[in-house]
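Quick note —
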Amino acid sequence: MAELRDEVLFAQPQLSHRGECPICCLPVPLDAAKSHMMACCSKHICSGCNYKNRMREMEQRLQPKCPFCRKPAPKSQAEADQDNLKRVNANDPFAIAEMGKCCRDAGDYEGAVKYFKKAAELGNVNAHHELAVFYDTGMFYHKGGGVVEKNHKKFVYHLEEASIGGHALARCDLGGVEKMKGNTERMMKHYMIAAKQGDPPALDVVKVGYAIGHVSKEDLASTLREHQAAVDATKSAQREEADAFFARAAERGAFR
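Predicted structure written out below.
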């Protein structure tokens, strides 16, 4: 059983947990700031497609709409929350995980765990990573009641499920777990997989591993090639145009 689990665990994911943008069909960058989840349909749209859609609407003086499902954009946060709630009631795992984040950020850890557990059961990769964080630290109500107890076995299980689903940060966290155990070979395997997904910090660890003799020259070379290929796969002219626009906006003190 352990060998079969490792075979699945150490397989290189074809995509990160962010998947592909449903508009341009290119892989979504690992950087969460370069995509946005639409509350109306729970689709993650890349910054390039969001930017091009908004520019078209402004030029043609059109009503803002979702680039994917074409529903009119919410006019307030309350309306956006209502859209997300509709998706939650429809058992959309992305919307359920998003509700878990809202509860967590509001300090409602019991609600957060409930939503994350449901989202994870429905296959949401990010929810597994969120649950891993809870089980690693143990989270409690501010009034003193327990939400989840610290549980290393569940912590590792959810990290593994997230990693199998392409979550690069969870993969790096697993590398840290193996480091604490002194399992250098397994540790470096995790970091190489994350680096090949395009994760820069993981690549830095692999480079250090090579410098101290834990990574072979061949493994370093293949990791560097696949890392660059993964990064290049997320690039497009309109995404670069969007990045330049938002960079100029940031210099002017504007917000996305």
